[in-house]
């Protein structure tokens, strides 16, 4: 463009060279040349921007350098390669002087009509333009910085979304600084997420839980009605950052293994009794897991392996299967474990109405047979005493107790713990005074006693 005149001139010189020996040719050439010069003085240039005329001028070089200047300024501003979005053409036209446009008017028109695109490294997230920096190095740096923000001591760091850097020509206003890009990438944006309807969900409860309006849920789900069914999948929008940094960290920790409680039957125990045979003990395992976090917030923990260091020991409990009976069997069991230190009958000039069984202070005293407690309290000489009526003419006495475990009116089973051995009342050391009365008269218990 703008070279038509030069070409004509070269053509004229060419003619001059070719026909320099031919005077006629020279004259012809000279006359052409002269007429050309005369003709050229009437020429100007029509400037069009994308086909639209913005002015006519003879000062074409000035206009061109003005355009160059605009280009250069824009390039300096963005710091990247820039391209002009429009096509500017200069067309040589023959016009009268009054048709020429004032050069300042042309400048103003050019500034209005021209726009630039700059070369940028665009960050594309899931196929969508999010932001752009002036070069790939900066774009990479900002993405790395974002990752490092959450990486800490993680084993693997990556973006949840498909994040790409693409070279693109964009309007310069979209070009941002490093800091701005970092901010934009972390900005929350509304994204569509799927939600599976749960039991008792309503549009209202879902809207509330997701910070949405019911109208917006309906807009996202054409045809949706209030009749939600559990398991139904609907769309919701959720505010999530433009990019999500996923970090994975392998962790190893020790965890206790709980034990089980196993029950076994024991016909020696009553149904309301139980006995721990083996105390349970928790085991220990070493767990290797991978913790996954989104932008630093833990979202899942996946156990990769477990190594048992100590097996748990199950607790074993014997549960009584013996039915409780408060009815007397007619025979008596030994009411305490110990040594008989004094028998029934004459003793040091006094009549001993029962047998004494020496046993350690606090050891248990058992009912010799089933029956009803008719006395539980203090009685002179006996100290703390329990009396059991077996409803078969026999009543048994348990004296010198340190502690009473039953009260008057209680039904007791044969072998049930009723008191603890002591030395209350007239006693010189801890022992049980056991007495059997038949129809109110003390008798020798020894012939009745069964070894336990
Ligand atoms: Zn006694």
UniProtKB/TrEMBL annotation:
Specify the G5 domain's residue ranges: 243-323
Q: TM segments? A: 21-39
GO MF entries: metalloendopeptidase activity
Instruction: List residues of the LysM domain.
Output: 193-236
Q: Name one Pfam family in it.
A: G5
User: What top-level branch of life does the organism fall under?
Assistant: Bacteria
Q: Which UniProt keywords apply?
A: Membrane, Signal, Transmembrane, Transmembrane helix
Q: What is this protein called?
A: Peptidase M23B
């Amino acid at each position: 463009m703008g070279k038509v005149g030069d070409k004509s001139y070269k053509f004229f010189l060419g003619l001059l060279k070719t026909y320099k020996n031919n005077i006629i040719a020279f004259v012809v050439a000279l006359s052409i040349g002269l007429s050309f010069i005369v003709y050229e003085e009437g020429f100007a240039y029509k400037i069009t921007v994308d086909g639209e005329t913005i002015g006519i001028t003879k000062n074409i070089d000035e206009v061109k350098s003005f355009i160059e200047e605009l280009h250069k300024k824009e390039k300096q501003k963005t710091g990247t390669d820039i391209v002009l979005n429009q096509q500017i053409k200069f067309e040589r036209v023959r016009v009268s002087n009054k048709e020429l446009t004032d050069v300042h008017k042309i400048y103003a028109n050019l500034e209005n009509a021209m726009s630039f695109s700059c070369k940028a490294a665009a960050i594309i997230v899931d196929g969508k333009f999010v932001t752009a920096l002036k070069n790939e190095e900066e774009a990479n740096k900002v993405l790395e910085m974002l990752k490092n923000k959450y990486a800490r001591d993680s084993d693997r760091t990556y973006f949840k979304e498909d994040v790409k850097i693409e070279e693109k020509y964009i309007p310069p206003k979209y070009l941002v600084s490093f800091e701005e890009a970092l901010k934009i990438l972390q900005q929350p944006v509304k994204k569509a997420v799927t939600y599976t309807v749960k039991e008792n969900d309503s549009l209202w409860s879902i809207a509330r839980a997701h910070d949405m309006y019911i109208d917006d849920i309906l807009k996202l789900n054409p045809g949706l009605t209030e009749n939600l069914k559990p398991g139904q999948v609907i769309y919701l929008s959720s505010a999530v950052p433009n990019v999500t940094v996923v970090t994975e960290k392998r962790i190893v920790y020790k965890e206790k293994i709980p034990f089980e409680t196993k029950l076994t039957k024991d016909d020696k125990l009553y149904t309301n009794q139980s006995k721990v045979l083996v105390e349970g003990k928790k085991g220990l395992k070493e767990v290797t897991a991978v913790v996954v976090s989104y932008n630093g917030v833990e979202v899942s923990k996946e156990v990769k392996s477990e190594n048992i260091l100590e097996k748990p020991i199950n607790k074993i409990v014997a549960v009584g299967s013996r039915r409780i009976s408060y009815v007397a069997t007619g025979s008596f069991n030994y009411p305490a474990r110990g040594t008989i230190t004094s028998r029934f009958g004459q003793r040091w000039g006094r009549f001993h109405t029962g047998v004494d069984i020496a046993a350690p202070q606090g050891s248990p005293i058992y009912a010799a047979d089933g029956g009803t407690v008719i006395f539980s309290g203090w009685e002179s000489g006996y100290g703390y005493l329990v009396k059991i009526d077996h409803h078969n003419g026999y009543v048994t006495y348990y004296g010198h107790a340190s502690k009473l475990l039953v009260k008057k009116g209680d039904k007791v089973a044969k072998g049930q713990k009723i008191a603890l051995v002591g030395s209350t009342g007239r006693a010189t050391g801890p022992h049980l005074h056991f007495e059997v009365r038949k129809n109110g008269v003390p008798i020798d218990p020894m012939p009745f006693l069964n070894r336990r």
